[in-house]
Every structure is written in C-alpha cells, then in structure tokens.
Specification:
single chain, 200 residues, mainly alpha, Protein-methionine-sulfoxide reductase heme-binding subunit MsrQ
Length: 200
C-alpha cells in the first residue's frame, strides 16, 4: 500500500534532511534579492517570500496529526524539524522588516502599535518564541506534561499568522484567504475530539 511505503520511507529518512532542504531557499532568496531577481522592491519581496515560507511550514506542521489520524501517514518524527524551520523563516521575515525595511529603531515600536497587521504578526511571533526555545530534549524533560500544553500555543500562533497575511495585502486577495481557510480547517480537525469527549 502507498501509505505503508510512505511510512517505511519516513522511518528511514533522517530529520536532518528536513533541516537541510527547508534551509536551502533562505540564502537563494537573499541572493535573488541582492541581484535583482525579486523585482523592483526586493526588500518587500524578500519579506513576503520568507513570511510565505514560514506560513507554509506552519501549515505543514499542523497537517501531520490529521495525516496520521485520518490517512495513517506517520510523519511525527519530522514535526519538530518542520516547526523549527517555520520559526527560522518567521525570524528571517522579522529581521528583514527590522533591519532592511524599517531600519530606524524608534520607528519599530510605532509601527507595531499603529499598524494592526504588524501587531497581529508580532503577537504570533511572541507565541512561537517559547516553542522554539523549548523544542529540545532538555526542555521536554524539564517541563514534563506542561511541555505539551505549552506547545498548543502553536494553534493561535498559526491562526495569527494567517490573519496577519490577510491584513497585510490590499483588498481581499484569494491567496491569503486560502491560507487562512486551510488553517481554520486544520484547527477545526484538532477541536473535533474535544467536542466528542465533552458530549460523552
């Protein structure tokens, strides 16, 4: 069966490949930005590309549990790598905005306060930060059962990421709405078992 082949292949594949493959677009996109390959507004384009990659990886991380639950595809061993690489691109997205776009430190806080889409994006980043810091074996041992509860912060963080994208673009464009719809669908799949339990 196809599912058995995928699971067998996943068992043989090291998580290190996920880190390597996911990291490759970062320097390539930066190179394109330096050489004119990202259009007439390379900084804005670089911000967008890093942010889009982050959102795609966050969505990929959300898909792992439904894939196992509903399709039998077990990719759990890659979830930490995908999550950390998502945070890597969120951090790059933020760094490009801070260092290359805004540049003026006093303007950063003003933008966070005055522009709602930046406020929402920063809130998502703030939720992801403790998850990235505690995504290691030492933190899992130290936090015990609290670790799993803490990492449920990824759900509001991904939702805020989707909302940030919708608010960022001018008008109602289909791409960010599709991302947000996928996120809401995946989050609703997470909520389904809880409703069954409470109903029982």
């Amino acid at each position: 069966m196809l599912v058995d082949r995928i699971n067998a292949g996943a068992r043989k594949l090291s998580s290190a490949y996920i880190y390597i493959v996911c990291a490759l677009p970062a320097p390539w996109l930066f190179y394109l930005g330096l050489t004119g390959g990202l259009g007439v507004e390379p900084i804005k384009a670089l911000e967008h590309e890093y942010g889009a990659l982050a959102l795609k990886l966050l969505i990929a991380g959300l898909m792992i549990t439904p894939l196992r639950r509903f399709a039998g595809v077990n990719l759990l061993k890659f979830r930490r790598a995908i999550g950390l690489m998502a945070f890597f691109y969120v951090a790059l997205h933020l760094l490009v905005w801070l260092v290359l776009d805004v540049q003026v430190p006093s303007q950063i806080w003003a933008d966070i306060v005055k522009r709602p889409y930046i406020t929402v994006g920063m809130a998502g980043f703030a939720l992801l930060l403790p998850l990235a810091i505690t995504s290691n074996a030492y933190a899992i041992r130290r936090l015990g059962p609290s670790w799993r509860s803490l990492h449920k912060l990824v759900y509001p963080a991904v939702f805020l990421g989707g909302v940030h994208f919708v608010m960022l673009v001018k008008g109602l464009q289909p791409e960010p709405l599709i991302y947000l719809a996928i996120i809401l669908a995946l989050l609703s799949l997470r909520l389904r078992p809880a409703r069954k339990k409470s109903a029982a």
